[in-house]
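Support case: NAP complex. Customer-provided input:
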Amino acid sequence: MKRHTTLVTGASSGIGEALALALGARAAHIVLVARSVERLQALKRRIEDAGGSATVIGSDLAEPGAAQRLHEDVRRQGLEVDTLVNNAGFGYHGLFEAEPVEHLLAQIQVNVVALAELTRLFVPSLLARRGTVLNIASTAAFQPAPFMSTYGATKAFVLSFTEALWAEYRERGLRVAAVCPGPVETPFIDAMGSGVRGAPLFRNMLSVDEVVQACLAALESSSPTRVVGWRNGLAAQSARLSPRALTARISAGLLRPR
Ligand SMILES: NC(=O)c1ccc[n+]([C@@H]2O[C@H](COP(=O)([O-])OP(=O)(O)OC[C@H]3O[C@@H](n4cnc5c(N)ncnc54)[C@H](OP(=O)(O)O)[C@@H]3O)[C@@H](O)[C@H]2O)c1
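Agent response - structure generated as follows:
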């Protein structure tokens, strides 16, 4: 019997690494994608030890055209993807004017452009295979995120894009879902900026395992959106009910660098 194949972007660290390992342990074939090829090779060996199999593809998704090259690479290797997990992403926390322009653009390229492009490239074959697209968004998607405005906006794109595709494809056998974690203890946090751990929102963090469990549940479910953690779910809902200016000001208080 042919193994179920899942492609995970951002599999070299944090959520993507743990999710790839969890899926690999279910005897699936995992296509591991990130820039850190040595880390991916080490993960491939762990997946094989757990009874799964894996293919490593190095890709810098901040480079224009990377999604196209990745898609071609997958096809050239004869791999047929059943589940696409768009997980690669990074953020910035701090004063807007202090973020280098190249960093801001790379964030949009990885979090938005590559995700949309990969989804578009894989959807025809995923439709034919009645597959799944799982996008890792964030609770930052539900309201503006002062001091991480670009990151929040990229995740708002991911959530809106995912929910729209969910509704568009739900009757055609393709599942599309977003998982929205609040802050998670991964290398992502310190990479965002030095003031992030002092901001009130980042005092309570989810574990990677909680997010992986939510991803596994999302892969089994027919709903478009899964917010991880009940407090985060409540905050996401309340942001929709309060006036937009008030929501933005409350967010500024929770995200202000300390
Ligand atoms: N941690 C949180 O608090 C949190 C909360 C909500 C949502 N999220 C989202 O969860 C996802 C995973 O984040 P994480 O917390 O697991 O962070 P992480 O541990 O820093 O992992 C990020 C992954 O993305 C990959 N990546 C980054 N830039 C890339 C590029 N240019 N090309 C290819 N791959 C790239 C990294 O691989 P290489 O560096 O090897 O390329 C790494 O595997 C992201 O989309 C993030 O926005 C995180």
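The chain has nine helices and seven strands.

Case will auto-close in a few days if no follow-up is received.
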